[in-house]
């Protein structure tokens, strides 16, 4: 398992339940994965070291969590040396690593998305943006860890975004090109699919919360909480997403000579005209994975191997009807500067059924000690018969876990909160 977040801990937790799994290694993992797997001191983008480790240790399957190694070609490298890997190739992962590529693909294949134009020239972008209806959305082309999208409510704000991306290069080469697009209004949700490049099987969907403060205020983060399923989700929407978005996208990528295998993530806006794509990601979502995998009844290993071996059409994937809610505990100050290294106490206090997935944690020097080591520290997850029950369980238990300068949102999965 490549990665170190709560998404990766959740995947490891699920894999560890499979009778087919003997041993798991995590690169680099965290204090949570250390309980289920062997943590390796290898960086997720150190592709050569990972390939060497996989080869020398005859790893049966490598699963890639984050986008950076995928964009850097980890899947291609593994396929080259004949090592099984769950993750998109570099060319396929461009659906995430280049928003301009993703947009052109969607436009060419009539996949519903916001109307947009892309620019490599600052002056042309500047001239164009002033003629757009407000609010207008300005997006950097490349990977930007959530910092590449500005929803500008005024022309000066849009111009500032353009200058920051294209002239001052605040995101480096990720801002060489930009997309300027219409702002869509509706309900936002995340859709996920397993695909072997031909068969496309949707997972249960989720909603996430990107802003740091309650009521979706403050700067964007990696994600502060999530729940599954969205309350507005129904079989008609499921069908529309499958038929109008996920299947056509996988088919389009295959026709373009970029067969996509792995988990495909569509960030969607459900407007009056149906589901529209805001962005694609070439991986599982974080913190969505933390509320999706607890609902999975099928052995995850069977699914991942079916993807790798091109026989996803051979298996039936089953999900529980339960609802699931996850709340992220973060270090105060995140996504800005924050202190780390504080002991976490109370990890054994929550009720037995509560799941605690680690992100920025590491094992301390004292016996059993776990320390904070990052901005997002834990995702606390509960399932219930409905969202309200799951939510009540999470919030009742989360207060039993402590570390200095701990922060979490109080409004995750609150009925009718924000646009969800
Ligand atoms: P992205 O990284 O592309 O998902 O964008 C980050 C966030 O910006 C999304 O989660 C949406 O909330 C918002 N967003 C992106 N594109 C649009 C759009 N065209 N209209 C409205 N909101 C958008
Ligand atoms: N949930 C946002 C992401 O994984 O990118």
The small molecules bound here are: adenosine monophosphate, glycine
Overall helicity: 25-40%
Report the top-level CATH class of the largest domain: Alpha Beta
| Rg, Å, rounded | 21 Å
* CATH topology type of the largest domain: D-amino Acid Aminotransferase, Chain A, domain 1
CATH architectural name of the largest domain? 2-Layer Sandwich
Query: Could you tell me the number of beta strands?
Result: 21
* Structural classification: alpha+beta
Number of domains: 4
Low-confidence segments: none
Strand content: 25-35%
| Overall mean confidence score, pLDDT | 96
From the spread of the alpha carbons, the general shape counts as globular
Total helices: the number is 12
Biggest β-sheet strands, sense, barrel:
6 strands, antiparallel
The first-to-last residue Cα distance is 32 Å
| CATH evolutionary superfamily of the largest domain | ATP-grasp fold, B domain
